[in-house]
Amino acid sequence: MHSTSTIVLNSEALKSNIEFIRSRLGENVRLSSVVKGNAYGHGIETIAPMIEKCGVDHFSVFSADEAYKAHKVLNKKCTILVMGAVYNHDVEWLVEQGIEFFIFDMERAQVALDAAKKVGKPAIIHIEVETGMNRTGFTRSELEQLVGLIKENSQHLKPQGLCTHYAGAESIANHVRVQKQIKKFNKTYEWLKKNGVTPEVRHTACSAAAMAYPKTHMDMVRVGILQYGYWPSKEIFIDYLGKLKTEHKIDPLRRVITWSSYVMGIKVVKAGEFIGYGTSYLAQQNMIIATIPVGYAHGYSRVLSNQGRVLINGRRVGVIGTVNMNMMMVDITDVTGVSKGTEVTLIGGHEETAISVASFGELSNQLNYELLTRLPHDIPRITE
Ligand SMILES: *Cc1c(COP(=O)(O)O)cnc(C)c1O
Q1: Which terminal CB of the chain, N or C, has fewer other CB atoms within 10 Å?
Q2: What is the 38 CA–ligand 1 centroid distance (Å)?
Q3: Rounded CA gap, 354 and 255, in Å?
Q4: What is the count of structural domains for the chain?
Q5: 3-state secondary structure of 320
Q6: Strand order in the sheet with 381-383
Q7: Is residue 4 part of a domain?
Q8: 150 alpha carbon to ligand 1 midpoint, in Å?
Q9: DSSP secondary-structure letter at 123?
């Protein structure tokens, strides 16, 4: 049975985004492709091999189950790095497969050590340090213990990386905090080196930091949202445009995803009538509305009630009233040639103008991340 909407992934757009990201990085900076959150909703199993085809050989995920999915579909030469949650009982599997992972407290370090001894292979660890986000990461005093443990067990624990995460690099409001984090990170690296532990790969930058703070590139960057064709925030986009040395200012990113559905029904509504549940939308004139079989159960956020935009026959039209669980209504009063079955683009679109107006980036950046990652796993992902 077919789902009520379809997701198409454009490999040319992906390739062009990755080339753009690469063009911003120095020659010796490695690109790690962040594919957590089901690859930002694109479907990890579908898109990870597409990203690999673009020459990327390093992938970052959040958890062990995501690592498992990536591991299944990627060439075994690719490096996989788990940045977040792992059950203690899954650590052995990571070590066996040579999958790398963040450690951020002594308990995790000890579990890694035990697993390495048991499996008979070193655990390849990335030491996450606390630099100011106050989420996960070793504080200085905990690092002292860790250094001891690593030195005593150098055949079992391989400190491959040193890493941290910035607390909001996408907004200039956090500039001072980010600068402090960079400083603290560099100091920590020097301190570790002096104490006999020298991680090979320093990595701190997400998309926003990679764009706005080149000194955060270090040995590797962990880039998520940019690959998929979205800016981490409007500020980062404007900052990028402002620094361009050309008059020809265009968005270099291309949306990889096109999410589309179809018109399920059409209705004429008289002026003065409410449309949908309750009183959230009152027809000010006679209107024609189309129903679309996509709602919040399919990942179309209720926040987009009376706000969202979709594309029909190349025209941008507004969502009318509240987004329902499985349906929404849009205003097609001014669109010609719409009938049952006409394609409706929810995200993306082929025409140049459509791409920038049809997506949700303009409404809210947070929504970019949230809406994409909430796209249900069971909508088929098709490659073009
Ligand atoms: C999500 C995440 C990234 C990538 O973030 P983007 O803004 O999508 O580039 C990088 N590092 C860590 C630790 C993350 O959790």
Answers
A1: N
A2: 13
A3: 11
A4: 2
A5: strand
A6: 265-269, 287-292, 328-331, 315-320, 309-312, 343-347, 257-262, 6-9, 381-383
A7: no
A8: 27
A9: E
The 10s digit of each residue's pLDDT in 231-278 is 998 889 989 988 988 877 788 999 899 999 999 999 999 999 999 999
- Contact between 103 and 162 under an 8 Å Cβ cutoff? The reply is no
Is pLDDT above 70 for 373? yes
Cα(371)–Cα(236) distance, rounded to whole angstroms? Answer: 20
Which range of residues forms the domain containing residue 339?
257-355
Both 209 and 282 in a single domain?
no
Distance of CA 288 to the CA centre of its chain: 37
**Encoded tokens for 89:** 């009982």
- Picking from 243, 269, 299, the residue at the C-terminal end of a domain is 243
311 and 196 share a domain?
no
Q: Which one is catalytic: 36, 40, 228, 296?
A: 36
Helix (H) or strand (E) holding 189: helix 175-194
Whether residue 171 lies inside any domain: the answer is: yes
CATH of the domain at 118: 3.20.20.10
Per-residue pLDDT of 317-362, as tens digits, reads: 999 999 999 999 999 999 999 999 999 999 886 555 444 444 455 5
| CA pair distance 96, 110, nearest whole angstrom | 16
CA of 34 to the centre of ligand 1 (A): 7
Kindly state whether residue 372 falls inside one of the protein's structural domains.
no
| Ligand 1 atom closest to 62 (CA) | 15
Tell me, yes or no, whether 173 lies in a domain: yes
Chain centroid to Cα 271, Å, comes to 43
| N-term to C-term CA, the chain | 21
* Cβ 11 vs Cβ 51: under 8 Å: no
Count of beta carbons in the 10 Å neighbourhood of residue 262: 17
The pTM assigned to this predicted structure is: 0.93
Same domain? For 99 and 206 the reply is: yes
**Size of the chain, expressed as the number of residues it contains:** 384
| pLDDT score for 365 | 59
Q: How far apart are CA 265 and CA 339, in angstroms?
A: 8
The atom of ligand 1 lying closest to the CA of 165 is 13
Q: Going by DSSP bridges, is the β-strand pair 220-223/309-312 parallel, antiparallel, or unpaired?
A: unpaired
User: Residues 141-158: what's their mean pLDDT?
Assistant: 97
Q: Is 277 a catalytic residue?
A: yes
